[in-house]
UniProtKB/TrEMBL annotation:
Pfam families for the chain: DHQ_synthase, DHQS_C
Protein species of origin: Glarea lozoyensis (strain ATCC 20868 / MF5171)
Highest taxon of the lineage: Eukaryota
Spans traversing the lipid bilayer: none
InterPro entries (alphabetical): Dehydroquinate_synthase (IPR050071), DHQ_synth_fam (IPR030963), DHQS/DOIS_N (IPR030960), DHQS_C (IPR056179)
Cofactor dependency: Co(2+); NAD(+)
Full protein name: Dehydroquinate synthase-like protein
CDD domains: DOIS
One GO BP: aromatic amino acid family biosynthetic process
Domain 3-dehydroquinate synthase N-terminal: 77-187
Record's keyword annotation contains NAD: yes
3-dehydroquinate synthase C-terminal domain segment(s): 190-326
GO MF, one example: 3-dehydroquinate synthase activity
Record keywords, A-Z: Cobalt, Lyase, Metal-binding, NAD
């Protein structure tokens, strides 16, 4: 067990406490012993926001735990997936808060994956002009990336994460025991964010990941702990490379994820996005073929997709990229990896580099062209 902290974006407010406690079941005594839920008022009623998958597998256990901790909860259950990261779902949970009489002393407790985290955070940052927020992420993706953040967002039909707010969670519990009900696909999907950290910041971490064994619980706990620690270091330093690392491969990956309409997970989409971005870096003369191959090798080792599906028109992908919040003029602004562990920086030290339509579409074409020969490419 360990407790880490990352700074609040508002310096006068306390940092977020992140507790790493890997247990096979929810244990009220263990949580009480580490002071988890110390920010939750015992006299108020609190919103427990989760999705129907989590509710089906552990809602009764959660109710028992909160009862033992003397925390009064009102469960609000949403459907799983991106359809709950919308204004419509947000309105639904707003009504639930108003109906149950939530007050300024209440906490929003988000228990679920990345979508539940975003919806919980957006709710907590806006209802009654701000409530306390506690997160218990239950997916690899949420544990290694989404929950370790103060940014929360909803989607629009035009693209992902176009509505957003800022609120630092008071407390986050990282428990790999929650992951035992996940199937292999979603464990690997979440580890794409760990690979992202390794590609941008840590060759040694990439070496550990190359020993891929997601079915080994001890290995998985170690990867999660390193991923969380590396992201917290990046958030606390807040340098240009650290901020760029957080969204590496996401400009292209988000566009592919948006067009996939649920057929690809977030990690699967950004795996492709990072491979295309590596193609882009090589085309622009910013990296070398060894770095490009390292990208394809890393994701292939985890059985993650690396090639843009044939059914997606490349110009359509570019059209969706134009909705990215960092798009400037007619250029996509995105980070690029120079060598494993190092991002490219311009003469001013900035790591968000401009890329126009022509070179981005050419990178997409090169990625697609590797579809039938990717096995030979990564082995050579």
């Amino acid at each position: 067990m360990s407790i880490l902290e990352f700074k609040n974006p508002y310096p006068s407010l306390p940092p977020t406490k992140v507790s790493l406690l890997h247990t096979s079941k929810l244990d009220a005594t263990a949580l009480a012993n580490i002071g988890f839920f110390s920010t939750v008022d015992r006299e108020s009623t609190h919103i427990l926001l989760t999705d129907s998958n989590v509710a089906a597998s552990m809602l009764d256990e959660l109710k028992d735990m909160f009862n033992n901790l003397r925390i009064k909860i009102h469960p609000v259950i949403v459907v799983p997936g991106e359809s709950s990261k919308t204004i419509q779902a947000y309105t639904h949970v707003l009504d639930a808060c108003a109906d149950v009489g939530i007050t300024k002393e209440s906490t929003v407790i988000g228990i679920g994956g990345g979508v539940v985290k975003d919806l919980s955070g957006f709710l907590a940052s806006t209802f009654l002009r701000g409530l306390n927020l506690v997160l218990m992420p239950t997916t690899v993706l949420a544990q290694v990336d989404a929950a370790i953040d103060w940014r929360h967002s909803l989607n629009l039909p035009h693209g992902k994460n176009l509505i957003g707010s800022i609120l630092a969670p008071a407390e986050i519990l990282i428990n790999a025991g929650f992951l035992k009900s996940l199937n292999d696909r979603w464990i690997r999907d979440g580890l794409a964010e760990s690979i992202k950290i390794a590609l941008c910041q840590s060759p040694d971490f990439l070496t550990l990941l190359s020993q891929a064994n997601p079915s080994d619980f001890t290995w998985l706990c170690r990867v999660i702990d390193i991923s969380v620690s590396e992201k917290i270091v990046a958030m606390n330093r807040d340098s240009a490379p650290d901020q760029a690392m957080l969204v590496y491969g996401h400009a292209i990956g988000h566009a592919i994820e948006h067009l996939a309409e649920g057929e690809l997970g977030h990690g699967e989409a950004i795996s492709i996005g990072m491979c295309v971005t590596a193609e882009l870096s090589l085309l622009a003369g910013l990296s070398d073929e060894l770095t490009l191959k390292a990208h394809y090798n890393a994701f292939t080792a985890f059985g993650l997709p690396t090639i843009v599906p044939d059914k997606y028109d490349l110009h359509q992908i570019w059209s969706v990229i134009r909705a990215d919040k960092r798009f400037r003029g007619d250029k996509m602004c995105a980070p690029a990896v120079k060598t494993i562990g190092t991002l490219v920086a311009d003469g001013n030290g900035k790591c968000f580099l401009p890329f126009g339509a022509e070179i981005v579409i050419r990178a997409l074409e090169l990625n697609k062209s590797r579809g039938k020969t990717i096995g030979k490419f990564v082995q050579n």
